[in-house]
């Protein structure tokens, strides 16, 4: 017996304009033909275009980031990473190590400096962004851009429920591994509750991580790890070892945003006017 699975697409309600809408609220229902679950042996029967459809959901809220070389930026070519649009007003979530330098976190001059980043959308549109909030210990940062009035409205991601994730779940990552923009990789969850110790560098203390076998690498950091509903369940932190890609669990991400004062009820307009 086969059960048709209903999949939710990330949309945003007009009632949340002016707030970061990256929350656990379920997206509106839509029928996704071709994805069925066989209850006899719990195997997934997927059509050949299943992940093609998923990539079309994820691409609009995935961005490519480039931090140009500068006094606080290491490397002759700068830093490349990925990001997730979390509000259509122009708020982008990424990893702090992509857009900030932890070595200078105690420097007053660095704290006052404008941390600019070039943001490229999946349709090729480019924006000059500014990092306006970050926590280097938790490896989370927020970027702000000003959307162009003549452009199609930005698409914001929806957060999934990390508590429902289990080993063996099918997932997809998106981002710019090795600088290859808007690359997607499917995989499975290998572990759903790793601690910061898996990173081995002392960062991310207090965070919990998802481990998947998606092909992630330098440049993937900040990109989304999504479930089959296209909901973000983790923020990729890179990883070059096959089968050992890690992502900060979305519940850890939301906790950090709340501690920063930028939770899912933030009014960007009010914050900017303070």
Query: In DSSP terms, counting alpha (H) and pi (I) runs of 4 or more, how many helices?
Result: 5
What is the global morphology? globular
pLDDT under 50 segments (min length 5)? 1-19, 25-43, 265-274
Total beta-strand segments: 15
For the termini, the CA-CA separation is: 58 Å
- Share of helical residues: 10-25%
Q: Proportion of β residues? A: 25-35%
Strand order of the largest sheet: 4-5-6-9-8-7
State the gist of this model.
With 274 residues, the protein is mainly β. It has helices spanning 50-58, 96-99, 108-112, 250-260, 268-273; strands spanning 2-8, 29-38, 44-45, 62-67, 79-87, 91-94, 116-120, 126-135, 140-144, 170-175, 183-195, 208-212, 224-226, 232-236, 245-249. Residues 1-19, 25-43 and 265-274 have low confidence and may be disordered.
Layout of helices and strands:
Blueprint: E1 2-8, E2 29-38, E3 44-45, H1 50-58, E4 62-67, E5 79-87, E6 91-94, H2 96-99, H3 108-112, E7 116-120, E8 126-135, E9 140-144, E10 170-175, E11 183-195, E12 208-212, E13 224-226, E14 232-236, E15 245-249, H4 250-260, H5 268-273
Which descriptors would you attach to this protein?
globular; disordered N terminus; mainly beta; disordered C terminus; 5 helices; six-stranded antiparallel barrel; 274 residues
How would you explain this protein's 3D organization?
By secondary structure, the protein is mainly beta. It is 13% helix and 35% strand. Strands 4-5-6-9-8-7 form a six-stranded antiparallel beta barrel. A hairpin with a 5-residue loop joins strand 2 (29-38) and strand 3. The longest helix is centred in the C-terminal third of the chain and has 11 residues, at 250-260. The protein is globular, with a radius of gyration of 18 Å. The relative contact order is 0.19. Residues 1-19, 25-43 and 265-274 have low confidence and may be disordered.
